[in-house]
Amino acid sequence: VRLSISSFEFDSAGRRAPHKPWVKIGAVVLAALVVVSAALELGWRELGVRPGLANTSSLWALEVDRLKEAAPGSGVVLIGSSRVQSGLDPEVLEGALGGEQVYNLSMSGYGSYGALVFLAEQTDFSGTLIVELWPSRMFWRELSDETPSFIKFYEERPHSDGLETRLDVWLGSRLVLLHPELTMIPVLSRLVASRFKDVPLPIETLNARRYGSLDVRAANRERAPANGTPMSPGELDELVRRYGAPIKRLQARGATVIAYNPPLTGASRAQEEALLPRARYWDVVVPQLGVVPVHYADHEVLESLDCYDGVHLGSREVAIASAYMAELLRARR
Amino acid sequence: VIFNSLIFMVFFAVVFGLRWLLPAGWAAKKGVLLVASILFYGAWRAEYLLLILISTLIDWSVSKRMYAASDPATRKRWLLVSLCSNLGMLTFFKYTNFFVDNINLIGALSGHGEVIEPFNILLPVGISFYTFQTLSYTIDIYRDRMKPWGSFWDFALFVTFFPQLVAGPIVRAVDFKAQCEQEVEVSADVRWWGAALCLVGMFQKIVLADMFLAPTADRVFGAVIGPSMRDVWLGVLAFSGQIYFDFAGYSICAIGLAMMLGFVLPDNFNAPYAAKGFSDFWRRWHISLSSWLKDYLYISLGGNRGGATERNLMLTMLLGGLWHGASWNFVLWGFLHGTYLVVERRLRPVLGGIPALQGRVGGALGWALTLFLVCLAWIPFRAKDLGATWRILAGAVGANQVPSVTVNRDLLVIPVVVGMLVVQRACRDTRLEVWVQRAPWWVVALVALVMFVSILVNTGVSRAFVYFQF
């Protein structure tokens, strides 16, 4: 065998494993790791931080699996962006609805359309759907209706993903140490910032069991308002047609569809009111969809809530908004 | 199943235990590794195991028949069977929709032609890697450079060996065969060092690639407008570091896992950003692929013979680019590297005669120019499409007057990338093993502890390896 066909082109002598007291190194590292991990875990708990999980496509897929096991006609599904994902607490809703299951299929960074089509076409869901129809996520011309990556992932996910994710959820919902927002950079920048700007800890998070995790990095500053080119009336007609098809399909199965526009404050609200006035957008589109509208401006409780960054509710406000939404749902039944 | 997942750690612990504690012979232990490899791949998509099985069976049978045939024409026919079946599967799964998109584009540009709907084809993970691995086996037998393997199960383990199945390093049959035939005595030092390499690889992947660099690269290359000049250069630096730490991290893990199981895999990276010149870069970057392309493509095209060296270099790099993905962006990336190699080849005799460019100054200039042009070529590699590539290149020279999408946090990219360059320059002519051998034990322990803790607190940001998509 000629050596030239080998892929080994390195100095094989250099590959020799270093001779070290590895057992001693391993024991010292393990002991120190246990001490450091325990200190971090206890320290974070002392500061009031609760376990949290990263918002991933795998978790979304797990929630869909749970939904597919639901009895016909039952359950409440939430779809929308992070404003719904971390803006309505499924546990509060379930408690107020007598234990009826709530499925959080909203996904941070995405609008409702992809999940709406998915729900209509790939599930038999026929319970109550709360779909976020947020003007700044619907009425800009630049927004795309491309199938979201988390739906593509659901369709192509590895066989082992469910088991893998359950294991991650099991561990992540027990250890604060693994909280996705407590990684090096945000923690160090917060510690540095707290020296100069008095940025408060503990970090605000939602319950890990429901896969919610606020983007706490944004929690201390107001977001730049969303921007784009408002749709023309012709484009709105097309939008109604696209959103209307999956909604009608769900309603034909007996589902109740609630269009929810969560609270908005500050510059984001001012911009939305200026560029996407309700009379020309929400009030034109939503009635044509034949859904139950819940616009924050129509409900005193919702309108009074403050968003820490202009678009997201904090944990205290989430509890109030969730209890109020549960009350609306109960009243409708 | 990926190395940076909890379930893989459980899986590997079981395999490692069985490999070393099973009171059985070498054949049974290899059987354990083969079953583990099949489970590993099946955990992604069990039905795609059939593809590996087909590829394994074809190459196993073809190699036997080819070796038995004395007539060159018959041998060539068997080689064609192997080439067509392996490359046929690769082309179908990887390039069908690329052809469809281009047919649609031509139809649209010429103003007629119906639009063909893209096919719903899922790319089998690792197909580009295991196809090249099995092809090298049949080509080597065709070239009379090795004999067919005696054991089908050993050959199946070579094709499916889980530490390197998904993203390399691409192993040659000749290297693996010797390790399969006889169980090698493995010292405790080797197993510990394998574990240490896994730790280093995970640190590179989870902490350096995913936490420090990927967010900046995503922000810049994902921007729908612009990006500005500052953004482009920060993004290019970030991606240059990310792609290295991501892929080198995976390769080091693969090498470490194999070492823990008693196998030696070839190096895949050797301080590539310390390269002085592009031929030097390709001896240091994705070594197992570049040496494969050299031995089985470049030399098959004629290599340096017959005055067509530059054409062969360019073709090799274009096909190497296309191997990475079905997109014109990868072709452009290959074209840029082909051009770099051709220009370097032409300039070498000229520059070699200029005394001012010899020695340290020349070396430093060569290194800086190589680094700059390699980083520039990452733009088409990472950009979404040719339009985005053009937009980002325009941003690189300040043509996009848009607000910046990067924030102060993104400036962290600079010290991380500078640190990477300093370490690679220092490692250029030495190896990690040498450094570790020289270091006191408590320094090794301290570094390992820092890596462990960093990995632990950053697991939430971990993502899939970039090269899994290829």
Protein described:
The complex is a heterodimer of chains A (333) and B (470). Chain A is an alpha/beta fold and 333 residues long. Chain A has 14 helices and 5 strands. Chain A has helices spanning 22-46, 57-68, 82-85, 90-96, 113-122, 135-138, 149-156, 161-172, 184-197, 233-252, 266-275, 282-289, 300-303, 315-332; strands at 76-79, 102-104, 128-132, 256-261, 292-295. A 5-stranded parallel beta sheet of chain A has the order 2-1-3-4-5, sandwiched between helices. In chain A, helix 5 (113-122) runs parallel beside helix 10 (233-252). Chain B is mainly α and 470 residues long. In chain B, 70% of the residues lie in helices and 0% in strands. Chain B is built from 19 helices and no strands. Chain B has helices at 6-21, 26-42, 49-68, 72-110, 127-142, 152-160, 162-165, 173-181, 188-221, 229-260, 278-282, 287-298, 309-324, 328-352, 359-382, 386-396, 413-427, 432-438, 441-457. The radius of gyration of chain B is 23 Å and the shape is globular. At the A-B interface, helix 1, helix 8 and helix 9 of A face helix 1, helix 9, helix 12, helix 18 and helix 19 of B.
List the helices and strands and how they pair.
The complex is a heterodimer of chains A (333) and B (470).
Chain A: H1 22-46, H2 57-68, E1 76-79, H3 82-85, H4 90-96, E2 102-104, H5 113-122, E3 128-132, H6 135-138, H7 149-156, H8 161-172, H9 184-197, H10 233-252, E4 256-261, H11 266-275, H12 282-289, E5 292-295, H13 300-303, H14 315-332
Parallel strand pairs in A: 1-2, 1-3, 3-4, 4-5
Helix pairs in contact in A: 2-7, 2-8, 4-14, 5-10, 10-12
Chain B: H1 6-21, H2 26-42, H3 49-68, H4 72-110, H5 127-142, H6 152-160, H7 162-165, H8 173-181, H9 188-221, H10 229-260, H11 278-282, H12 287-298, H13 309-324, H14 328-352, H15 359-382, H16 386-396, H17 413-427, H18 432-438, H19 441-457
Helix pairs in contact in B: 1-2, 2-6, 3-4, 3-5, 3-6, 4-5, 9-10, 9-19, 10-15, 10-16, 10-17, 12-13, 13-14, 14-15
